[in-house]
Give the backbone structure.
Amino acid sequence: MKFFIDTANLDEIKEAHDLGVLDGVTTNPSLMAKEGITGDENIIGHYKAICDIVDDNVSAEVIATDYEGIIREGEALAKLDDKIVVKVPMIKDGVKAIKYFSNNGIRTNCTLVFSAGQAILAAKAGASYVSPFIGRLDDISTNGLELIEQIVSIYQNYGFATEVLAASIRHTMHLINCAEIGADVVTCPLKVITGLLKHPLTDKGLEQFLNDHKKAQQKPAIA
Ligand code: E4P
């Protein structure tokens, strides 16, 4: 299972990378705006800075929604670095563009996927990744994890090469459930990745081990 971090914050990306478990980064226009990254030059510079931190898989989203525009932006993004994966929305021109990128050796992440039908289209078009948004479905009382399960099963039926990238992950149980279901990738905020570390029995056990060690050092050695 691959771990991507869902942020455009360089410090958070570095922290997750330093943990040694990071396989990539997903950004989107909202996450870029949150970091105050505006203007073409700054946006390009920011993607390059992210690519300098991680080993591969940096999803950079196109803003255009028409076929020609998506191709133009996607090709420019892909030229920035081999690590770039062009993020394309699940719309008609997006699907056509994914097919074009796939034919031309450019990796894509089909984003804003909320149904199995959309996921089938993305795979048929040759997307490298498909991003179903779990949290946003849960927000409207629809089971996001069931969609992940459905897509994993459909892709297995036909041996689609498209990887299921579970997105919009809100908490550690989303991530663990995705692992059980067999999602290929999860993308989540740093707090979800570091949240996996925590267990009160680990903290309690470590404290006891260290105390016992300290006490033993204070006793004279047995002759
Ligand atoms: C995926 O690539 C998106 O950037 C992201 O997961 C959206 O998550 P949100 O619903 O928390 O905004």
About this structure: The CA atoms of residues 193 and 210 lie 26 Å apart.
